[in-house]
Amino acid sequence: MKYVYLLGLWGIFLMACSSEKAEPADLIFTNGIIYTVNESQPTAEAVAVKDGMILAVGSVEEIEKHQAENTELINLQGETMTPGLIESHAHLMGIGYNKLELDLMYVKTYDELVEKVAEAVAKAKPGDWITGRGWHQDKWIEKPEKMVKGFQTNDQLNEASPDNPVFLRHASGHAAFANGKALELAGISNLKGERPGEVEGGEIILDELGNPTGILSERASGLVARLIPAETPERAEEALTLALKELNEKGITSFHDAGSGQNVIDLIQKFKNEGKLTVRQYVMLTGTQPALLEEWYKKGPMIDSADHMLTVRSIKLNCDGALGNRGAWLLEDYSDRPDHRGHETLPMSVVSEVSEKAIPAGFQVCSHAIGDRANQEILDRYEAAFANYPDAKDLRFRIEHAQHIHPDDIPRFGELGVIAAMQAIHLSSDRPWAIDRLGEKRIVDGAYVWQKLMKTGAVVTNGTDAPVEPVDPIPSFYASVTRKTLQGMPEGGYEGDQKMTRAEALKSYTLDGAFAEFEEDFKGSIEVGKAADFTVFDKNIMEVPEDEILETKVAMTVVGGKVVYKK
């Protein structure tokens, strides 16, 4: 009996020792404010990491038990840590190439645009193409005297560059501005006929005499774009390097690339193999290459279940244009251009065909839709495809942007389980002039309706659509919770009842983004067993006054337990 008693004491002693000797961590983050996006444990004081995964989350005392001789301690010095941010819709190579070309995102007048082109011409060789992106006529502080259908003409551009072809993409990517030399090379001159300027899925904007103004809307841009010399492998690598660096600096740990071909996938794979891929990639196959899609239907998705750095399991379809160039496909006329309803840039039969093939092949479909007609048509085709495969579950089809939706179609997102992959920053940038395009009723009823969508049970993700907007998540987070312009207008925000709470905004940029790529069990929240992907901010974005949110900077970015950026 005495032996049994002593054995019992020894067992208690062993248990006490084992409870103190917790599994050693490679890395411990402590002394910060940690928001986990885990409902059962919303905040924590410290996090332990081992082999790139989260080992423990809790108080300082709990996490200290995982400290060993070789554990690296990272003192957050009171800064704020969240799950790694997930950019749910942007264009990877576009971000990089934007840094190699003329960046027109911050141009405030047409004269300033022309000045930038003139500077580029002075440095270029005769005949070299001048390319750039980012201009937006509705964001200029003053408009040129001569405007045609809401756009500038290329008279000044021709004077600045008479011999070098110029091709400048609109910020939205849904229009382009070309000079006379570029149009000449494309064989575009005075156009006459019954329907002058019309191109299938697009439009060449003409003046009153039938002369092209240089504005090419939607698919008409391709008439000139196809003449631009192909990118070299060296330049592509440079662009990808610059894009990854930008994402690291902006706190992005995972990235949904909204439409690429095999060449980009191969380049990302090359970077992964060489240890240069510092952001997790979820690549959508571009729907502009039917042969590519057929190849992937046969071999099926490429799901990276090892290190989760490169997955290809979705297809991107471009189904209409944007509001900025009046290319978004509407059910009724544009308020500021009667008898015009935008463009169906892809036959809706293709959405049906791709959806029918994608489901049995295991692919998600992600369709670009900004106008209410495009959203409605795509929902119709998704619904029909789902009905044809009643046993297929958890498909998570998406509509990219879902910017303007007819009220009758809003509930269908939740009913069908369609994800609304939205970009809150578009509200800040577009809302001041979008009301001219749609009128007040359509804006109030169905534009940027985040709360209405979430109340249907739909998942709403967040992002920037970079390089349409800068990839910086801070302005998009600010727009989510204020519905104001970046200048802080108007008081109370536009349609303030649709604001997200800060918790909802953070979730839209983390766990909801992970859900949209079928990875919510691997990342998106700070929980034991998930990836050690973190974003650290120098201000507490969940608590500071809203006018201080835009002053916040990313202090550190961590991917798989590795610090890939530190301020």
UniProtKB/TrEMBL annotation:
Source organism superkingdom: Bacteria
Where is the signal peptide, in residue numbers?
1-21
Pfam families noted in UniProt: Amidohydro_3
Q: Where is the Amidohydrolase domain?
A: 72-565
Keywords for this protein: Signal
Question: Keyword Signal: yes or no?
Answer: yes
Protein's name according to its UniProt entry: Amidohydrolase
